[in-house]
Design brief:
34% of the residues lie in helices and 22% in strands. The protein has a five-stranded antiparallel β-sheet. The model has no long low-confidence stretch (mean pLDDT 83). The protein contains three helices and five strands, in the order βββααββα. It has 108 residues and is α+β, with helices and mostly antiparallel strands. A hairpin with a 5-residue loop joins β4 and β5. The chain is globular.
């Protein structure tokens, strides 16, 4: 087992905000510590796979831990997109509301 405790995972997360009235993503930024304004955080598959010293599960666990420390009021749910990007939703309610909205648009 590798000793990964002292090494840092290198990522460039993107912070997204959703306009619920128009049901679209707005205000995409790379600004660090933008937790108060964002609805979800995206970490690309490229970021995940470029960290060769870590297993994917460890990166996900460390990201969840960082998110919970940065914004403890969120319930931070993790999903993997069709492009294999990792999306961390601040609130489960927003995640499922967005999923239902997308499903109804695809059915139409």
């Amino acid at each position: 087992m590798k000793n990964n405790q002292k090494k840092e995972v290198i990522m460039h997360p993107m912070y997204f905000q959703i306009d619920r009235q128009q049901d679209k993503t707005i205000n995409i930024t790379f600004e660090k510590d933008n937790m108060a304004k964002c609805d979800f955080v995206l970490v690309t598959s490229k970021d995940i796979h470029s960290n060769h010293d870590f297993e994917e599960n460890e990166i996900i666990d460390r990201t969840k831990s960082w998110l919970k420390k940065s914004y403890p009021n969120g319930d931070w749910r993790h999903r993997v997109s069709k492009n294999e990007n990792h999306i961390f939703w601040k609130y489960e309610k927003t995640l499922f509301g967005r999923s239902e909205s997308m499903a109804s648009k695809q059915a139409a």
